[in-house]
Amino acid sequence: MRCNPVALALAGCCLVACGGVAREDFDERLAEALCEKYTSCGVSYEEDSCEQRLLSELIARVGLNARQGEPCASRMRYDESAAEKCLDKIRDTSCSQDPLSPRMLERGLGTSEECRFFFGTTADGEVCQSSGECGAQSACTSDVLDPSPSTCQPLSGEGPNDSPRHCAEGLLPIEGSCHKPLEQDQPCAHYRYEVCAQDLYCAQDTGVCQQPASKGAPCDEENRRCAWNLLCVNGTCKAPGRKGEACTPPSPTASGAPCQSELFCDAAPSEPGRCRELLAEDAGCRDSTECRQGLYCESSSPDSSGGTCKRYAGKGEDCSHRACDPLLYCSESSGTCKPQGHPGESCVAEPRACLFELTCTQGLCGGPDSATCP
Q: Is the pTM of this model over 0.85?
């Protein structure tokens, strides 16, 4: 049977989203890309549980769905093709490099130079609340919602300038100027912030930029860091424990020998144990880190298995004797779980009702200036 080339082309376009990823699909696609990398680099146990964890924890805080309530979201143009390139870049990173750089998270997902797919219409000099509202070569002087006015400004080139917070791609803000990151063995000790190139760090003992220690190399918490996907265990860089391997849970005085993400060490703190899969609902537990995603350890005790893995209460459910899902809060007035407030939403009755890192100011999450777009 002969194939219809037009039909094949259309089918292929659907499979790859015609070279882009729709905004409503981005968070899930980001979880897939990260967990593919975390699993292949030995950080996570398996991809499915990794995706569930990220979607309910990290991505719930920094993902695109978390930004839907921003008052100026309509001024942020989402570029599907650029978003696809961002995900490809995450997948293509080697295991020597953390796929989510601190700079990417600091600037905000979709607005950092390394991974930008939000392009706004706000002109330079005009008031903004986030860099996603500014043009491709500009950034908002503050990415955090606060009462002080911020404006879109061009990204700064190399050299001194009045606002080095937003430097052009490949540059870092270093003591009032935009500079190229310091390379290996360059002195860095006199700088107050991290100024070394990506995948390097400023070692306190030598005072120069150097690479993190590899697997099997000596390490310590102060001077010799391990690579991002390794742990410093008893002075040696080691990979997190896999299922069935020996482990030691951390204690207040020792870091222990932890397991891969989505696994836990089945032992009391500082005691030898084995890495095993997270526990199902109603299983006995020591703390919530032992329970599967969507569960927590009720009446837990760090000294014994006296707790039980229980399901978080969902939206509208009673929370008088049960914890709410981390994306919800327990309303004192109704005794039920409610969604946390977005910028500009009222928090008069319950000041703790606001989303992550938003404060209740003058009765509104984020303050009165966050309620409307400039």
A: no
